[in-house]
Amino acid sequence: xxxxxxxxxxxxxxxxxxxxxxxxxxxxxxxxxxxxxxxxxxxxxxxxxxxxxxxxxxxxxxxxxxxxxxxxxxxxxxxxxxxxxxxxxxxxxxxxxxxxxxxxxxxxxxxxxxxxxxxxxxxxxxxxxxxxxxxxxxxxxxxxxxxxxxxxxxxxxxxxxxxxxxxxxxxxxxxxxxxxxxxxxxxxxxxxxxxxxxxxxxxxxxxxxxxxxxxxxxxxxx
Length: 222
Description:
Blueprint: H1 10-21, H2 23-58, H3 63-73, H4 75-111, E1 115-116, E2 125-126, H5 134-141, H6 144-158, E3 164-167, E4 177-180, E5 183-185, E6 188-190, E7 193-194, H7 195-220
Antiparallel strand pairs: 1-2, 3-4, 4-7, 5-6
Helix pairs in contact: 1-2, 2-4, 2-7, 3-4, 4-6, 4-7, 5-7
């Protein structure tokens, strides 16, 4: 799990914006840029803790042993671990979902009047000199993975929590794991999705997309 193989010189963007728009805007941007990386760190922490808790359930146990624990013998222990695993999984989801809107604030401050929006990443409207950002923005939030993430977050926030549920496979054909349960949001229907794989892939995907946007902001503000 890695943010990106690329680099993004945050201090260059801060300096560029300060020279263009003054110290106040530079300092406001700097706080936002740091917040992007705080949220990435939060997401990484929650994912790593989720992985540790999942391993605590499955490590050294056969599917039959796990099933016995779930259904008969040690329900309290499994339940306690699952509460913690769920909390970390949803914490990672919320941290990843917040990144785009924080990045939207960074784009707005970096380009000053060259962009308009209403506070949500999908509302960003670029002016002609900055259209090179459009495909990079779409790369971040225009694919099925991000739409799933947004629907999962909003469903959990406004309706019912989309819980990770432990799946013990007694056939031996699949890995014992936590899945996000199936849900529907705004007419979009989703089946169960493995938590660990989704979170790691989305963390890596967003990291790459954010760095690409950041480097383009550096170029546009030089």
